Amino acid sequence: MTLKQNIYCVIMAGGIGARFWPMSRQDKPKQFLDILGTGFTMLQDTCHRFESIVQADNFFVVTGEKFGGEVMRQLHTLPPHNILTEPERRNTAPCIAYAAYKIYATDPNAIMIVTPSDHHIGDVEAFRQCLVRGVEYVSQNDVLLTIGIPPTFPATSYGYIEQGDEALETGRGAIVRFKEKPQKEEAEALLASGRYVWNSGMFVWKVKDIVAALETYLPEVAALFANIKSYNTTSERTDVAQAFLNSKSISIDYGVMEKADNVHVLSGDFGWDDIGTWESLYRHVSSLPSGENPNHKLENSPHTLVRVSNPDKQVIVSGLDNYVVVDMDDVLVIAPKGDEATLHDLLNKHAKNL
Length: 354
Hints:
By secondary structure, the chain is α/β, with parallel strands linked by helices. It has helices at residues 42-48, 68-74, 92-106, 124-140, 165-170, 184-193, 207-217, 219-226, 236-246, 252-257, 278-285, 340-350; strands spanning 7-13, 59-64, 83-86, 111-116, 119-121, 144-149, 160-163, 172-179, 196-206, 263-267, 272-274, 296-299, 305-308, 315-318, 323-327, 332-336. It is built from twelve helices and 16 strands. The strands form four sheets. It has a five-stranded mixed beta barrel with strand order 6-9-7-8-10. Strands 13-15-16 form a three-stranded mixed sheet, covered by helices on one side. Strands 5-11 form a two-stranded antiparallel sheet. Helix 3 (92-106) packs across helix 7 (207-217). The longest helix is centred in the middle third of the chain and has 17 residues, at 124-140. The radius of gyration is 21 Å and the shape is globular. It starts with 6 loop residues before the first strand and ends with a helix.
């Protein structure tokens, strides 16, 4: 695809990755780490997969104030003024509003791709082809497009989207509804129905359409960023910081996407996963050559994931089935990998620097 000047990519990189403690810390969350062992951080991987679609100066990264320098170190070609910082986390709606109004100020005809920074994409070329179709679809239709993933198992950690008839027949079209993360029995029913896709949290839209939607469904948030006159000036950071501090915390799904009447879905099968838990990480690391460290000896320990801060350290594990072993300089954690409740309790009781 020929790079078009009016296509922008906004990467959301403001989370702290708490479920990956103790690897992910408040001072260096998972998006800035090489979680998968590929030689690139999750942020770098995210940026790379869009490079054939988006021009270098049309990337924006939204992140916490203290991570601006880290983004610059990891993405050397990113212009400094394309690093958009939040003084406090306010979920995805204010984050997207900031980026949308900033882009709109200089290019009201822009097409905006929004993506989290912590996804795994198995087939990058298929992913790019899907995004190209999404951009073309949005350029011809005034819709808010979300990328849906055909489910492969009854996931309880993802939201779902019910597709309308056109989307079921053609792979793109209007949605019926969003569905919150289900319990296992309901997830099995959603999968069996054949009408649902996973909600990937990736979006494509004309910037004017998301601005209109924000002003319709989240007018109080929209007003905070619409009233800023200092975009792309030295006063921008101060004015934006005040807008964030005055904004409520709300997701774009809850604030806009579940209410708007022009939400469409494009189904894409490209080996997607949201790397949000140790279990999801294991699904991919175990299939990668880089996932096997010769210094890690696992005996009678199936489905066990080992992560060590010192790659030269010898680790011997025996008799642990489906565990996660994480050895950092200051803490060692050994816990059942699939038991998210236990891991969450450990985090709340013992986590440092979070």
